[in-house]
């Protein structure tokens, strides 16, 4: 679909244009306020939602100032598909609902509500609200089913439907949908909250039309898109033409032998446009970590936008940024391939790969890899007093570390890059709603990737189940093997994964599982990785390493093994430490002389030393580049070879003697 040009000859003066452009932003942000005040879902309350204003053709005119990245680049596709679906039958008072990931959406939990806006009988705009519903049916509470072979085993896939028809609420349609979802009352509440948000936006837009005239407002729509296109082209024109290439990985395809799944990204700047070619990516995988076209295009847009923070976001940007996303690959899975876990899978891999590419073009804004998004979900029957066996759904994500930057350490305990506007969920709120108590929530020492500028630190979060029955747990993440990586000589973070303790027995559950039975007294803990390091860790100022030790960001042991800084413990209780300068010089010289050889040592021998307790997990990852199945201790030979190649390219090639 293409955009038409403005149908009037109105030439807006700069003041009117800025007033209207800002009014559009305010309109969308008011939708966000409405949703937070009236939603039923704790997930949506913690900002897993986005809103936008679309023009009459479905093009995005404005998104909210705090919308999360994963919805960026998809809302206009959904709107266009819906308008086309109902072409000839679009009426005042209509409201549409859709969550179809194969119609330009993300995954089935992201439910979009759209309201066409009319003025004097003419369609002039669409207001749209997207919210992540905590459950949309299927066999796994939270609708994250790692065992799904197709979308039929994930939950309710909703094509474009009328939920309000010419002002009349379709109870039958709404009940059909929500009764097939857990906590159906909450789902109905979220539906109404999002619908009301679109109504408030319609009301505000028509106030602007009343004040400025419909032609002026719709011309401002077009000029807003032209403005974004113009400033993006201007900034690209100042950059050198060329092609840059990199790749990132999903840990494995469960239907194949061990080894990484490649997401290949080539970026070309040609004059005032930028194009991404992902055709070198592997075919879709045998679980739900695949992305659809819409999700991957969103990752392309979001990854690019991170390096142009001053450029507003609307469809004008999509005239400048383009992408090849071949169908059948992990970045464009066709229906009915499952895609619910896409954001923890292909999506953030595309974003981080693009970060690395732009770090070469704009080194002053460079950033290493950020931690991987993860979701832990539990559901069942709440047996606490007064709960009457009611259903519960605990739906949690963690903060983690972003990558080290050129001249600055990465951000600690920050929301995932897929949704920088996400809030860290209130532990007290979670404990009130669900039979689960948080036992630990703290920064993980040594989780940050070492570098001249280290990555930000990750977190560890633990919990214990209270009185519950018929309860299960599911988890969605990645990077237990393709561990958060550094650039320009920086080193990786730590693996993701969950440890579950039942009946006194602890088990490493890995990064993807569904419907594991849990009961009262069961405990779990999971860390998020820190960001990858930027620059050679041996070039980090020893005083900065000392401060990290005092802050518990780095242990005394890893200060020596990762940074070559020898620190004497005078009195740890009062943070009294001292750098052993002579020993530090000797240690750094020793590491420089040996570290490239360490990456070539026999992986079997290294694995045996690990099993004997001579080496720990971080030694394997950061020093020897050896990757195991962390639950069984089995050496992953192909994965190790690929991981070592990555370390060679991103780290060892940048080290100097």
From TrEMBL:
Top-rank taxon of the source lineage equals Archaea
Q: Which Pfam families match?
A: Hydantoinase_B
GO molecular function, a single term: 5-oxoprolinase (ATP-hydrolyzing) activity
Limits of the Hydantoinase B/oxoprolinase domain? 13-537
Cross-referenced InterPro entries, in alphabetical order?
Answer: Hydantoinase_B (IPR003692), Oxoprolinase-like (IPR045079)
Which GO CC terms are listed, alphabetically? cytosol
GO BP: glutathione metabolic process
Question: Which PANTHER family did the record assign?
Answer: 5-OXOPROLINASE RELATED, HYPOTHETICAL 5-OXOPROLINASE (EUROFUNG)-RELATED
Name of the protein in its database record: 5-oxoprolinase
* Organism expressing this protein natively: Natrialba asiatica (strain ATCC 700177 / DSM 12278 / JCM 9576 / FERM P-10747 / NBRC 102637 / 172P1)
């Amino acid at each position: 679909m293409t955009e038409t040009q403005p149908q009037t000859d109105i030439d807006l003066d700069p003041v009117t244009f800025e007033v209207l452009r800002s009014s559009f932003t305010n309109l969308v942000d008011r939708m966000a306020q409405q949703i937070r005040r009236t939603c039923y879902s704790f997930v949506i309350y913690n900002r897993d939602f986005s809103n936008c204003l679309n023009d009459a053709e479905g093009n995005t005119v404005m998104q909210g100032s705090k919308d999360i990245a994963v919805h960026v680049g998809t809302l206009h596709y959904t709107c266009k598909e819906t308008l086309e679906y109902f072409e000839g039958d679009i009426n005042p008072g209509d409201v549409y609902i859709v969550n179809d990931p194969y119609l330009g959406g993300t995954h089935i939990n992201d439910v979009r509500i759209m309201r066409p806006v009319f003025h004097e009988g003419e369609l002039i705009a669409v207001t749209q609200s997207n919210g992540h519903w905590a459950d949309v049916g299927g066999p796994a509470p939270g609708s994250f089913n790692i065992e799904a072979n197709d979308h039929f085993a994930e939950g309710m896939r909703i094509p474009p439907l009328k939920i309000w028809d010419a002002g009349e609420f379709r109870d039958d349609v709404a009940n059909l949908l929500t009764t097939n979802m857990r906590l159906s009352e909450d789902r109905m509440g979220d539906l109404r909250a999002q619908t009301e948000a679109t109504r408030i936006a319609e009301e505000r837009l028509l106030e602007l039309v009343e004040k400025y005239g419909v032609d002026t407002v719709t011309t401002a729509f077009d000029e807003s898109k032209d403005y974004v296109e113009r400033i993006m082209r201007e900034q690209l024109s100042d950059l050198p033409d060329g092609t840059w290439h990199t790749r990132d990985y999903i840990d494995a395809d469960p239907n194949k032998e061990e080894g990484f799944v490649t997401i290949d990204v080539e970026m070309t700047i040609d004059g005032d446009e930028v194009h991404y070619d992902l055709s070198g990516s592997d075919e879709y995988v045998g679980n739900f970590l695949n992305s659809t076209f819409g999700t991957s295009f969103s990752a392309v847009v979001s990854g690019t936008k991170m390096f142009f923070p001053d450029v507003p976001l609307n469809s004008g940007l999509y005239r400048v940024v383009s992408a090849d996303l071949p169908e059948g690959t992990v970045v464009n899975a066709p229906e009915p391939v499952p895609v619910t876990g896409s954001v923890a899978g292909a999506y953030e891999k595309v974003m981080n790969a693009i970060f690395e590419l732009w770090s070469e073009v704009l080194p002053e804004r460079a950033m290493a890899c950020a931690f991987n998004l993860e979701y832990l979900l539990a559901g069942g029957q709440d047996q606490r007093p007064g709960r009457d066996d009611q259903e519960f759904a605990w739906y949690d994500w963690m903060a983690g570390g972003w990558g080290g930057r050129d001249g600055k350490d990465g951000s600690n305990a920050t929301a995932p890059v897929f949704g920088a506007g996400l809030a860290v969920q209130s532990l007290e709120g979670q404990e009130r709603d669900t039979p689960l108590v948080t036992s630990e929530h703290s920064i993980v020492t040594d989780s940050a990737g070492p570098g001249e500028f280290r990555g930000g630190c990750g977190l560890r979060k633990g919990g214990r189940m209270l009185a519950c029955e018929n309860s299960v747990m599911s988890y969605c993440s990645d990077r237990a093997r393709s561990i958060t990586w550094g650039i320009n000589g920086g080193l990786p973070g730590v693996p993701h994964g969950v440890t579950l303790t039942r009946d006194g027995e602890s088990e490493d559950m890995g990064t993807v599982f569904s419907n594991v039975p849990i009961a009262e007294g069961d405990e779990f803990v999971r860390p998020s990785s820190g960001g990858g390091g930027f620059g050679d860790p041996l070039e980090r100022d020893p005083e900065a390493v000392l401060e990290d030790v005092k802050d518990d960001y780095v242990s005394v042991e890893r200060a020596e093994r990762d940074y070559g800084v020898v620190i004497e413990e005078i009195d740890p209780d009062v943070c009294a430490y001292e750098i052993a300068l002579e020993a530090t010089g000797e240690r750094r010289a020793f590491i420089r002389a040996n570290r490239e050889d360490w990456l070539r040592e026999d992986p079997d021998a290294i694995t045996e030393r690990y099993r004997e307790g001579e080496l720990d997990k971080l030694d394997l990852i950061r020093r020897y580049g050896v990757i195991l199945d962390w639950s069984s201790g089995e050496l992953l030979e192909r994965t190790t070879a690929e991981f070592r190649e990555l370390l060679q390219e991103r780290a060892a090639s940048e080290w100097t003697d």
